Amino acid sequence: MPSPQTLAALLAFVAERDWDQFHSPENLAKSISIEAGELLECFQWSADFDQEQVEAELADVVTYCIHLANKIGVDLDEIIMKKLESTKAKYPVELAKGRMTKYTKLSEAPE
């Protein structure tokens, strides 16, 4: 997760501009989606991409995710580990390794 220094810098940036008033969970979720679309646009017509542009868009997505987590009072490490545990149950290594099959079809024989 971001370092304490990075988190402090993000919070200070927003505070200095009095932007927290605009950071409702709804607005932050919308912003995540918008920025994710901009990230995807970097790959729209080709697998080749501009590294600097991808990094900038990825930073936007992650920044809004951090702001949303702070706004709704969740610990990112905690929710990621919780989700990882549920995903491990859906995708057991013995069925999922080397396959990109959706978990609902993992019990079927590999193609």
Describe the 3D structure:
- 65% of the residues lie in helices and 0% in strands.
- The model has no long low-confidence stretch (mean pLDDT 95).
- It starts with a helix and ends in a 15-residue tail after the last helix.
- By secondary structure, the protein is mostly helical.
- It has five helices and no strands.
Short recap of the structure:
The chain has 111 residues and is mostly helical. It is built from 5 helices and no strands. The chain is extended.
Defining traits:
0% strand; 65% helix; mainly alpha; 5 helices; extended; 111 residues
Q: State the assembly state of the protein chains.
A: single chain
Helical content class: 55-70%
β content, as a range? Answer: under 5%
Major beta-sheet overview: none
Distance between the termini: 37 Å
- Mean pLDDT value: 95
Residue stretches low in confidence (pLDDT < 50, at least 5 long) are none
How many helices? The count is 5
Element-by-element helix/strand order: HHHHH
The total beta strand count reads: 0
Rg from C-alpha positions?
18 Å
Name the shape in a single word: extended
SS-based class: mainly alpha
